[in-house]
Amino acid sequence: MAAGADSGSSGRARTSVWLEGRPAPKRRGERPTGLDRLDRDRIVAATVRLLDSEGLARFSMRRLAAELGVTAMSVYWYVDTKDDLLELALDAVTGEVELEEDPGADWRDQLRELAVSYRGLLVVHPWVSPLMGEYLNVGPHALAVTGVAQRVLRRSGLAPEQLPGALALIYQFTYGFATIEGRFARRCADAGISQDDFYRQVIGTIEDRPEFDETRDIRESRTGATVEELRTRDFAFALDCVIVGIESLRAPSRRV
Q1: Contact indicator for 30, 105 with CB cutoff of 8 Å
Q2: In the chain, what's the furthest Cα-to-Cα distance?
Q3: SS3 content of the chain, % helix, strand, coil (to 5)
Q4: DSSP 222
Q5: Half-sphere exposure of 249 (CA within 13 A, CB side)
Q6: How far apart are CA 90 and CA 74, in angstroms?
Q7: Less packed terminus of the chain by CB within 10 Å, N or C?
């Protein structure tokens, strides 16, 4: 966890809402009004909606309370800190990753499906990327995704000591690709311009510059496709390269 994170109600450095195990703080005073209209699932769902619509930088407990139509104190009856709430939201959306596991299916295909779904999560919810770097991300949905990925990758024939590195490769490649993709989409949206229009502006700016002549054939190969189509094509090919690399590093006796 990054330094300087919220220390929570105990005054000590926090680890994770999933690991703290501390009792709920003592509640003093009268029960806040509107509390009967709340539960933690509703609070987390509203948090996700706000993060999707307004971004991480603009999110606050006060803004969340206004969205729910309650006081900020009402929210704190269900979560100790803003950090705890963000961790809950992070794990909630991680549950959107598709986990259709078939032990009889080709591990390569299942690995592709898992990576594609993980990419989609990061693009649809661009606020997820920075939180994954801030928190331990060991909630039940995150552990379920990791468990499926480990079991699928185990069927590749890699030796046990190779599995963690291969799993990190899949995660970090997808994380990096989708993080840039999601941030680009968000930047275009904030600027009020479509991704395709922005891409055309960039290409138009460099088209006649001599230092880019040697990449003209690459640019021409991408003519006529939308940014989303290009991203999907690039991701699929790059993922194939990753999988081929994993295959090549298996011991001959383990190749399937």
Answers
A1: no
A2: 72
A3: 65, 0, 35
A4: T
A5: 15
A6: 21
A7: C
For 91, the token pair is 């794990």
Nearest to 61 by CA among 45, 81, 77, 41: 81
Selection from 25, 32, 27, 62 nearest residue 47 by Cα: 62
Candidates 143, 227, 221; CA nearest to 180 is 227
Q: Which pair of structure tokens corresponds to residue 78?
A: 């269900």
The structure tokens listed for 256 are 């399937």
Write out the two tokens for 57.
Answer: 């930088």
The torsion angles phi and psi of 132, rounded to 5 degrees, stand at -65, -30
Q: 161 Cβ partners below 8 Å, 6+ apart?
A: none
Amino acid at 220: E
CB 56 within 8 A of CB 134: no
**182 closest CA partner among 67, 56, 83, 47:** 56
Q: Check the CA dihedral 36-39-44-45 and report its sign.
A: negative
Residue 227: half-sphere exposure toward Cβ, Cα within 13 Å: 17
Q: Of the candidates 127, 37, 32, which has an alpha carbon nearest to the alpha carbon of residue 85?
A: 127
* This prediction's pTM: 0.83
Summarised one tens digit per residue, pLDDT across range 61-116 is 999 999 999 988 889 888 889 999 999 999 999 999 998 888 889 999 999 999 99
State the Cα–Cα distance between residues 97 and 207, nearest whole angstrom: 39
pLDDT range class, residue 250, cuts 50, 70, 90: confident
For residue 114, the one-letter residue type is L
- The two structure tokens encoding residue 112: 């592709």
